[in-house]
Amino acid sequence: MFRQVIRLLCCSVVVVTFCEIALSDDDTNIGRDAFESACSGCHSHKLVVPRAMSRTQMAELPPEKIFKAQKEGLMLIQAAGLNEIEKRALAIYVSKIPWGTVREKKAAEKLSQCDTSPPLAADALEKPHWSGWGLDLDNTHFQPADRARLDIDDLENLELKWAFGYPGATTVTTQPAVAGGRIYLGGPNGGIYALDSKTGCAHWKFETGGAVRGAILITQFEDGRFVLFAGDREAMFYAIDANTGEMLWKDKADDHKWALITASPALYGGIVYVGLSSFEELAGGSDVYECCTFRGNVVAYVAATGKRLWKSSTIVEPLEKTRQLANGTQLWGPSGAAVWSQPTIDPKAGVLYVTTGDSYSAPAAATSDSVLAMDLKTGKIKWHVQTYAGDAFTTACALPDADPAQKEGCGPDVDYGSSAILRTLPDGRRILLAGQKSGVMHALDPDKRGEIIWQKQLSPGGVLGGIEWGFAADDKYVYVPISDVWESSSAPGQAGGVYALNFADGREIWNTPAAKPDCLERAGCNAGQPAAATLIPGVLFSGSMDGHMRAYDPGTGKVIWDVDTKRDYTTVNGVPGTGGAIKGAGVTVVDGWLYFGSGYGLWGLPGNVFLAYGPK
Ligand code: HEC
To answer: What local confidence, expressed as pLDDT, does residue 2 receive?
Structure first.
């Protein structure tokens, strides 16, 4: 270890004196001291700060990733006081994995090129396919029978057909698009892969600037071209030719330093809508950062050209200077109200429904933790319902020794991470279902400016949900997986579970508590079910942080199928594959096949695989 550090430090582009300091010191001490001074306040062995992984979990990340997080990633501000040598020594000190493993893994990737790449058939979107996150304008996450082509009886006949390994990744939360025998996969290290949906061979890879976090949407233009839409971690939004992988247009949707696209796009009437989010809440934990100036927003583009029609902020109050910290750092607000999910389109009312996250620096915006109805044509907010007022949160809120001015007005961080679902009752009344990290399911009347019809507290809720990435609905019931990961940290195994409610009145139909995890000896293993649910006729899918993908009987809540993904895999692209926790996207079901990713290295079991199950 000692020798390795010396070599690495000296071949990095740092001034010679740094190398000399490193050579004459004990590198392990440099790493340990740097970690203790800059990181351990949040990343100790025990979970203290929500979402900040424990020291033990960080050891599972490759050192390159820990280094990069400090140099240019999420921990830029937290590591601002460290020099390059310290950042690197720290990364090597913390990680169990030798430096260089990521490069080896990346080098091991050999995309197996398909023999031929015929263009998609003209009727590819009339056949079984999957496009985007919510699957319909209502965002039900329900895949109809003629597209799913999978029955309850087919489940036991499924087997793993191929696995794809993302080189060097520890987290896989991608929701692909599937059409015309191809699957389009977003990469946690960036890029969009077009693979054969049955064999995993590659047609092409499109390079993006950052990770693709949201779903990929596929559509067909009037001239017959098939086009993909997706956003990335650098807040860049792309339109790509689905046959060739050529870019049609791209747009930097937001210039804020901490902005990113996590939300999945929605398409209606030739206009594509996408929401913006950010990680500024993390930077806001630092007392040298002028927190916070990012404001969530939605951008509308002409799908064919990329021309921006409008960009609408989720916050209407002006951004102003608020307080100063004891050290003179200026704070700003209101900020936040990020958009993490796909907008729900309501052509009848002429609006899109957008759910927002918490505010960052206090005072909280009037529109954070809210459901907004934005005009489809202008983006103007027509009405909004705030379901948790005064929720201003940055990581400073969780730090015992943060400046009191940073902690002023701290709220519980109960964002909306999931899309609202629009449903129509048999009598024609409509209902808008919004599930929050607070653990509450809210039913609003979209035709009465969001008037609350009923509310139901399903779980304690909190920073890691409650209701986190998404729920699903048919014509009668809404199916809601529960995360509660953070709440379970003191008693792992008590999080998770799934509820089915009658959405007309909120009545509970069944609830199935989570199974006791079979991996509690591992850091990051727990029973939470933060991943989005997917529904097909007769089967509900919900993944778990314990690495299992389970299918439930939507009528009774009984578990009818269960596969444990946390093991090693041989992959079609030659990258050693490992499965871990399941979080983020839901299962993609198309033409009798299931597709989903496994691995969540942030505060769960790391992994890097995307799995395809088909009939034996
Ligand atoms: C103020 C609290 C705080 C401090 C101090 C802090 N972190 Fe973090 N860190 C977090 C939180 C919260 C997250 C989770 C971010 C998220 O929500 O995705 C995180 C995430 C990370 C990640 C994962 C990043 C990724 O892109 O997946 C790494 C690696 C990390 N921290 C390393 C460090 C290191 C190294 C230090 C010290 C230089 C440090 N952190 C200091 C709170 C902190």
So the answer is: 37
